[in-house]
Structure formats: structure tokens, C-alpha cells
Specification:
The structure is a single chain. The protein is of the alpha+beta class. The chain folds into 3 domains: 177 residues, no CATH class; 72 residues; 83 residues, Gyrase A, domain 2 (2-Layer Sandwich), CATH 3.30.1360. It is built from 8 helices and 13 strands. A 5-stranded mixed sheet has the order 3-2-1-4-8, covered by helices on one side. Strands 9, 10, 11, 12 and 13 form a 5-stranded antiparallel sheet that branches. Strands 5-7-6 form a 3-stranded antiparallel sheet, with helices on one face. It starts with 22 loop residues before the first helix and ends with a helix.
Length: 370
């Protein structure tokens, strides 16, 4: 069997996720976490009110320990071959009984394995492991009890580093049945040195949480404190509420003023935009003027196949028997500037023509004159 590694003590201070535990169990776990932050005497006094019974089996015999907070006290023994309730085998059972019973197996009966799984299975880890047990261990899922925890993420966060604990059902079945017959069914199946919160027992085999009768007195005290706090806080709350109403009214007035200013600015932007449109329309060259000028400038034997105009730049493609002279002809045209070839002149086989690709800047002649 794999050697056990004791987890760091600070790991026990983590609060459990609310979605993963029943309400009563969640309250008890939070209570245990808060107890660790209290002075030792106060922690022990509170722990005495709800201890746990820990059963540590060794063959057909087991030692019974009463766990009070983080301490354990031997209170008797139990024989697997005898019957009766667990209270009947104790010489001096606790006056208040115990909150729940834990079955703690020897460490050598538990097999520990490390596995790497995709991060997407984190929310359904136990269900996925139930299908992977036969691959990760020599056992089938129906033959074992198991639990797992996530140690961290690897492969740049794309995979989970998982520790899996497995024990054969027949190693604990007799003791679980004995505890049920003794009217103290096990709420937790763990092992010596298990990580905090480890429980090999499936949820459907755990006893239902006890009613919250033992919480009645603390709840009443909490209710009285809450009512006293409400009486003291009500005047402050009323003053705060009145202040909040005034703040809301002030925000509404300020919002209306801002809206008026926004409308004024929008109107000004619209006016400036319309003026800009008119100015650009006035300065924009007319395509009919460009076509007329090209018709006058380009010599016979030249024709344009494509003509594109964008942001004052004209791009023309075509064929001519004087392609190399077109640059000089176009540079003399009114409103035409920055004439250049966009690609080398190519001979058209069998025709004596040359294929050209020329671009230039074009503006309204009268605008350039101004």
C-alpha cells in the first residue's frame, strides 16, 4: 500500500463550498473552523457539548475514542463479534452523547494514488473517478470505497493533480454494519492520517444529518442579539435612508442638467457636421470634369479599362500604343498631380500595345488655384 502523507495543518482552515454539503453539515463545519480561532479553554468547553465518537478497528476489536475538538480520549473498546448498542459497552458514556460516529481504518488498509485529469471534470470529480477506478487501481468501482482531493493544477492550468484514496469494501463492511446495529451509524469513513474532510463513505450510505434541535438555544440567543442590534441600528438606518433619498433627488436633478447639456452639445455637433459636409462637397472634384480631362489628354490608340477614385487618388488601368509617354501628358492636366506608374509597362503580345497601371492625385482645378 502507498505511504500516507499528512497534509499541512493550515489546509483545515478552508471553509467548505456551500453547494457541496447539506445545510446542517455545512453549519457544523463552519463551527469547527471558527473553534480553531478561539482560546483553548473556550474551544474545549464548546467542543465538550458536541464530541465525536471515533472507532479505530484492529482486526475484530476496536478502540473507542471520544474526540473533543482536536483532542482524543480513550473511553472503551468494542468487539465485532458482540451485539448491543455502543452506549451499552461504555462504562461511563458522555452525558450528552456524541454528535456523530467516525470509523477510522489503519493507514495500511488504504491505497493512495496520484492521477492527472482534465480541468473540466473538477465539478464532477467523484462521478468521473467512479468510471476510472478500474484504470487507476486494480479494483472495480463496486468493490471499493473511495474519495479524492485536488492538489493543484498542472500543464498551465489545463489539468488537475488529483490524489485518490481507495479501500476495499470488505475491509470496512463488517464494522459499518456493526455500527448500524449499535444505533451509531458511521457518518465518516477515513483512515489514520487522512487529509481534512476525507470521507470514503458514499453520500447515500451516510446517515441523514440530525435535526438542528441542539442549535435551538444558540439560535434564540442569536435572535435576541439580532433584535437588540436592530433596536440600536434603526434610528441610524432611518437617518441613512433619508440621506439616501436626498442624494437620489440630487442625482436626478444633476442627471437632468447633464441631459440638457448633452442635447446642446449634440445640436452644436450636428451644425458643425452639416457645415463640414457642405465644405467637403464644395471642394470635392466632379467626376464628369475628370472624365472630360482624361478624354482630352489621353492620345488616340489609348483606352482605359478600369478607373477607381478614392480620397482624391485616381487609379487607372488600360492599354496604349504610347504608354511610356502618358506620365508627361497627365502631369500637364489641370488638377492632376503626383502621377506615377503603379507597375511596370507590359507589352501585349501580337497587338503592339502596352498595358499600363497609373495613379495620380486629382482635385478641383478652381480649388487648387485658390
Amino acid at each position: 500500500m502507498a505511504a500516507l502523507r499528512r497534509p499541512a495543518g493550515l489546509a483545515g482552515l478552508r471553509l467548505p463550498a456551500a453547494a457541496s454539503w447539506p445545510a446542517a453539515s455545512l453549519l457544523w463545519r463552519w463551527r469547527d473552523t471558527l473553534l480553531r480561532c478561539m482560546p483553548q479553554r473556550l474551544r474545549r468547553w464548546l467542543a465538550l457539548r458536541n464530541p465525536r465518537l471515533v472507532v479505530q478497528p484492529h482486526g475484530d476489536d476496536a478502540q473507542l475514542l471520544l474526540q473533543i475538538g482536536g483532542e482524543r480520549e480513550p473511553i472503551g473498546g468494542l468487539d465485532l463479534r458482540t451485539g448491543g448498542t455502543l452506549v451499552s459497552v461504555l462504562a461511563s458514556p458522555p452525558k450528552r452523547g456524541w454528535r456523530e460516529t467516525w470509523l477510522e481504518l489503519p493507514a495500511e488498509r488504504v491505497l493512495l494514488r496520484r492521477a492527472t485529469l482534465p480541468v473540466q471534470v473538477e465539478d464532477n470529480l467523484n462521478q468521473v473517478l467512479a468510471f476510472e477506478i478500474d484504470r487507476l487501481t486494480p479494483f472495480a468501482a463496486s468493490d471499493v470505497y473511495f474519495d479524492a482531493r485536488v492538489l493543484g493544477r498542472v500543464a498551465r492550468g489545463s489539468k488537475l493533480d488529483v490524489e485518490l484514496a481507495v479501500v476495499r469494501r470488505d475491509a470496512a463492511a463488517d464494522w459499518l454494519e456493526r455500527l448500524r446495529e449499535g444505533r451509531s451509524p458511521a457518518a465518516r469513513l477515513a483512515w489514520s492520517g487522512a487529509w481534512p474532510g476525507a470521507n470514503l463513505l458514499p453520500r447515500d450510505e451516510r446517515p441523514k444529518p440530525r435535526r438542528l434541535d441542539s442549535l435551538l438555544t444558540p439560535l434564540l440567543v442569536a435572535l435576541a442579539v439580532a433584535l437588540l442590534a436592530a433596536v440600536m441600528v434603526t434610528p441610524l438606518w432611518q437617518r441613512h435612508r433619508a440621506q439616501a433619498l436626498l442624494d437620489d433627488e440630487l442625482k436626478r436633478v444633476r442627471s437632468a442638467a447633464v441631459e440638457v447639456e448633452d442635447v446642446r452639445e449634440a445640436l452644436e455637433r450636428a451644425r458643425l457636421g452639416s457645415v463640414e459636409v457642405l465644405n467637403r462637397k464644395r471642394d470635392h472634384p466632379l467626376m464628369i470634369d475628370l472624365l472630360r480631362e482624361l478624354t482630352d489628354i489621353l492620345p488616340d490608340g489609348t483606352w482605359v479599362q478600369t478607373l477607381n477614385f478614392s480620397d482624391g487618388e485616381v487609379d487607372i488601368r488600360g492599354e496604349s500604343n504610347q504608354a511610356t509617354d502618358l506620365i508627361g501628358m497627365l502631369e500637364g492636366g489641370p488638377g492632376i498631380s503626383a502621377v506615377r506608374f503603379r507597375s511596370p509597362v507590359m507589352q501585349v503580345a501580337g497587338t503592339g500595345q502596352e498595358r499600363f497601371h497609373i495613379s495620380f492625385q486629382y482635385g478641383r482645378p478652381e480649388a487648387q488655384t485658390e
